[in-house]
Design goal:
By secondary structure, the chain is an alpha/beta fold. It is built from 9 helices and 17 strands.
């Protein structure tokens, strides 16, 4: 019977939402195919919600080694877990941490590594779907190694209600006795303040060159705040210095999969589409009816953004 392990990513005790999304999907697969879902947690975060979202068991390792992320120690610990328990899949969020950790772990295990997946299914074996060629097509992948390390895009899977039974928590040996990392984290600085993180947001509002000048990006920030959304940007205005790179959506920026993506004044270059084409619903506002963004959009508004965004925000605010 196939078993799926899910890495519970946490920072300072706060668990990333993608962890619960992956457990929800893993539970649905295991209910259909048999087997169990195992949550794997490194550090002091609360493991209780894992059972509520569908995990059968929680394996947790605590200690000073997990106070801050260190790729050497964390990949060793997860490798020790996989060696001892042999899950068929180990799912990690395709976050900054997950993208760093997954290939290191796969190398330690001599295992398959499938990155940036957007779907999982069971057909007598696990089938992993991932985008290729900047999102122009998808590949369905079956792996031959005993364990596969799979990166999963945040928001690719639906989150269940989280009303399941509590899961038993079991300590495991991370195999770090006597281990001294070659590098250690002495300080972590996080940008963005209280804004919504792009990769985890359910709604993203992005602006592009159609805004005409840097000061007009405030229209995007204001609309995002009204909608409870994250504010994104195209590469063009990031390169122009209007907004920081942390806002960039695209092949050389961040990849997002929100329920709703609103592209304002963005033409739709392939580099940008690669970062947001997996969004559940795409709305585009552009005055050029031939802009490529409309080919990817579910809904399009052909109009000057300055005539649309303000009244749209006022209408949304009036709903409160």
């Amino acid at each position: 019977m196939p078993n799926i392990a899910v890495f519970i990513e946490q920072r300072d005790g706060a668990v990333k939402k993608v962890a619960w999304q992956m457990i929800s999907k893993a539970r649905a697969l295991c209910d259909a195919a048999g087997g169990e879902v195992w949550a794997v947690l490194l550090g002091e975060a609360d493991a209780a919600p894992a059972g509520a979202h569908g995990a059968h068991k929680v394996f947790q390792a605590k200690g000073d080694a997990f106070a801050a992320y260190n790729s050497e120690g964390w990949s060793r610990a997860l490798a020790a877990f996989c060696t001892a328990n042999s899950p068929d899949l180990l799912l990690l969020g395709a976050t900054a941490m997950g993208k760093d950790l997954a290939p290191r772990l796969a190398a330690r295990l001599d295992a398959a590594c499938v990155s940036d997946s957007v779907d999982l299914s069971w057909d007598g074996g696990f089938v992993i779907r991932r985008p290729m060629f900047a999102g122009k097509c998808y590949a369905d992948v079956k792996v031959a190694s005993a364990t596969a390390v799979v990166g999963v895009r945040p928001n690719a899977f639906a989150l269940n209600a989280g009303d399941g039974a509590a899961a038993a928590v079991e300590a495991f040996d991370p195999g770090l006795d006597g281990f001294t990392p070659k590098a250690s984290v002495v300080e972590t600085k996080q940008a963005g303040g209280k804004t919504v993180e792009l990769t985890e947001a359910e709604i993203v509002v992005s602006g592009g060159r159609g805004l005409k000048e840097a000061d007009n990006y405030q229209l995007i920030r204001d609309l995002a705040q009204t909608m409870g959304a994250a504010a994104g940007a195209s590469r063009a205005i990031v390169d122009a210095g209007w907004v920081p790179h942390s806002h960039q959506v695209g092949q050389t920026g961040k990849t997002v999969s929100p329920n709703l993506y609103v592209a304002i004044g963005i033409s739709g270059a392939i580099q940008h589409l690669a970062g947001m084409s997996s969004s559940k619903c795409i709305v585009a506002i552009n005055k050029d009816p031939n802009a490529p963004i409309f080919k990817a959009a579910d809904y399009g508004i052909v109009a000057d953004l300055f005539d649309v965004v303000g009244p749209f925000r006022e209408a949304l605010a009036a709903l409160d």
